[in-house]
Amino acid sequence: MEIRSDLMDAHLYAFNRTTLQDVLEQKEAYRSIRLEVLPYLVKSQLRSAPSGGEGTIVDETGNVVVPPSSNLQCLSQHRAIAPSAFKQDLLASSGGGTHRCCVYIASKNKYCHRLNSIQAYCDINRDVIGEASHLSGYSFSSHNNIIHPSCVLGSKSTVGPQCMLAEGSQLGDKCGVKRSVIGRHCRIGSNVKIVNSVVMNHVVIEDGCHIQGSVVCNNVQLQERAVLKDCQVGAGYTVTTGSDHKSESLARK
Fold this sequence. Notes:
The protein is of the alpha/beta class. The chain folds into two domains: about 1-50 and about 75-110, no CATH class; about 120-250, Hexapeptide repeat proteins (UDP N-Acetylglucosamine Acyltransferase, domain 1, 3 Solenoid), CATH 2.160.10. Helices cover about 25% and strands about 20% of the residues.
């Protein structure tokens, strides 16, 4: 047995549908895949390991289960023919726990991240224009950023290192973008500042807006001089002219 402390559960699980349905039918009180179903399946897998000598099975409480005589006769035949298959054949014929739980350990050249918070979402977007840039399919410019050829930048507008400006987006004059990701077909006016933020697709940001540490979803409209700091803005929401929001979640009702 190898015990490790350098791995993180990515919270991504794949099940045999029939097995999962059986468990949920037997354990109707279960509400969590991670905290209840998965530990139960692991326990069932361990339950099927021989204990107390060959030819015995241990149940969920640790008690020895004796297979029927017909199974024992079958067992002796299989032991003589194929000793290496002895344990598996006994489990299959006795109806014991046959769940098998496996884990995929990503190698160091793979990218894997647990996405369970706004901060994690922002971190992943920055990774895509950083250490995991190969996932985007784009290549970096000489300024260490990604700007799609179809984008339009106004006079004196700057897009800093580790930023991404996706297909069809436009920046007005004197805009500044730092450590941020801007999606497809966004329309950004003049004198707009975007820092440490994620702006999704088809967003309209009018003149003089400031966005910092925020996530702006699809089809949002920020009217003139709106200010967002550490906010999340839901899809299709309109931030009114001159409004100032800090640490808020804004969404359509």
